[in-house]
Amino acid sequence: MNINGLLEKIPMKVVVRGDLEQEVTGGYISDLLSHVMANGQEGNVWITLQSHQNIIAVGSLINFAAIIVACGMPIDKNTIEKAEKEGITLLSTDEGIYEIAGKINSLGI
């Protein structure tokens, strides 16, 4: 399933539109950036509470399909600008991490 398909099944706000055709290979959850860099995998959607611009650097490094900022956390303007520059899909949801992860998992991703 690609990001467009994911958004059809689980509506989220598209903050920055990257490559919505990129395939989603799985999911990853962590707020510890070093842990994400060591264990995240290309094509994953990364669910986090972090919203500062360093998440974009990590997302670009790993080549995540998208970064999902959960719990309605406000996203910094600099983060949005960096995501646009890097072409990283940045999504936002008011749902909690557990809830959004469960929905993604239920899709068999």
Write a structural description.
The chain is of the alpha/beta class. It contains five helices and five strands. The protein has helices spanning 3-9, 33-39, 54-62, 77-86, 97-106; strands at residues 13-16, 26-29, 44-48, 66-69, 90-92. Strands 1-5-4-3-2 form a five-stranded mixed beta sheet, sandwiched between helices. Strand 3, helix 3 (54-62) and strand 4 (66-69) form a beta-alpha-beta unit. Helix 3 (54-62) packs parallel to helix 4. The longest helix is centred in the C-terminal third of the chain and has 10 residues, at 77-86. The protein is globular, with a radius of gyration of 12 Å. It starts with a helix and ends with a helix. The mean pLDDT is 97.
Fraction of residues in helices? 25-40%
Number of helices: 5
Main sheet: strand order: 1-5-4-3-2
Outline? globular
Strand content: 15-25%
Please provide the ordered H/E string of secondary-structure elements: HEEHEHEHEH
Gap from first CA to last CA: 8 Å
Rg calc:
12 Å
The class by helix and strand makeup works out as alpha/beta
Largest sheet data: 5 strands, mixed
Q: Mean of the pLDDT scores?
A: 97
- Strand tally: 5
Low-confidence stretches: none
Task: Give a quick summary of the entry.
The chain has helices at residues 3-9, 33-39, 54-62, 77-86, 97-106, and strands at 13-16, 26-29, 44-48, 66-69, 90-92. With 109 residues, the chain is of the alpha/beta class.
Q: Secondary-structure map with pairings?
A:
Blueprint: H1 3-9, E1 13-16, E2 26-29, H2 33-39, E3 44-48, H3 54-62, E4 66-69, H4 77-86, E5 90-92, H5 97-106
Parallel strand pairs: 2-3, 3-4, 4-5
Antiparallel strand pairs: 1-5
